[in-house]
Request: fold
Amino acid sequence: MTRRAPLPAAARAIRSGDRRVLARAISQVEDRDPAAVAISRALFPRTGRAPVIGITGPLGVGKSSLINLLVNRLRALDRTVAVIAVDPSSPFSGGSVLGDRIRFDRSAHDTGVFFRSMASRGEEGGIAAATREVARLMDAAGFDVVLVETVGSGQVDLAIRDVASTRVVVLVPHLGDEVQTLKAGLFEIADVFCVNKSDLPGAELAERDLRELVHLGARSGWTPSVVATSTNPATGIDELWTAIEAHERFLDQSGQRAADERRRVAVEIVERVRARIGDELTARLEREPRLRALVDRVVARELDPESAAERVRRERRAR
Amino acid sequence: MAKSPKATPIRVLIAKPGLDGHDRGAKVVARALRDAGMEVIYAGLRQTPEEIVRAALEEDVDLIGLSILSGAHMALFPKVLNLLKREKAGGIPVFAGGIIPDEDARRLRRAGIRAIFGPGSSLEEIVSTARNLARASA
Reply:
């Protein structure tokens, strides 16, 4: 069993709480450094313990400020926390400004918290390709809870579904009527709705609309809870954490956690195979004369793309 | 030539130590570094040297840029450098910008600040210096 194989030194250091090695390994995962594969593989049997809480919602609803307050709440409960805050990469330069640390006010000396900013590096679903793997490293490093803040650029960052065990969708008053909420795919991913900036006019209406709607959208035995919060001054944060914990408890008691994990793992395996086959095929289409000729025939309109794909697929199976 | 997808972006921390509230310059520099393809962790205003060093280590940055206008640079910059050394991270290059008199700038360079940009520095110069510092330390 690989389980008994000796851990690479870096994996051992991460397990024993070395934050510098953890920080370095996170970069290696992001950079697709081959060294990261061995570390991730060695630590994988020791993951799956920490709940991963996704905080998603549109731009400017207060996700970073809420995370800051949730971290404070968790520290007050003596739980250790790791945060991944994802911001977009520029499609033009590849660069990014990662600004979520600004809202983060933990003492520089609190070793129970680890905060990491992450650029999306071309991924569209509101998190980075590395987010799942990095959350696992943090889990293996012993943090009790992992919080993931999504980009928040589109209507909903759906990819968080494949990473988080509990998803909090953050909204604010006057984002739109309840039809907006219905159409946006929010109900497919929300385990907890958080109406933030609840000191603003219209908050009660938004909260009431959501409460009515969650009953229409109940799925797999869980009705999403609705919590009102504000971050300045802080209200509702205890209730928000209580709602998150209630969902985590539901996952354990209903057996849903195993079902969700199974779905997430299946998605991940397919993604990994697809990426590998895709890379391999892209290279072959450039390299192998016969496949180059096939592409040329499509360009010349002698063959349609679907038929070309079918030929490549049949050939793969024959090999 | 197209940039190889394997090229890994430079990660740089931009922070303002001390108490002055003017972060326009830091933001302009952050944006220029972003446009040059870097990942800029923007830590914002009123950071203590301890917070800056902690952020640099957690974020595993290749480079740190400090911006200051308050005049407290002779107290705060050496403190950042010393904390980095204490954490065995003295290899992370630190550059600075702001209102820093020439005599102070000379002393700070001797203390280990790798480059200092005053008012009127060109963004091109800052970007190319930042890139060279990060690549040299990698």
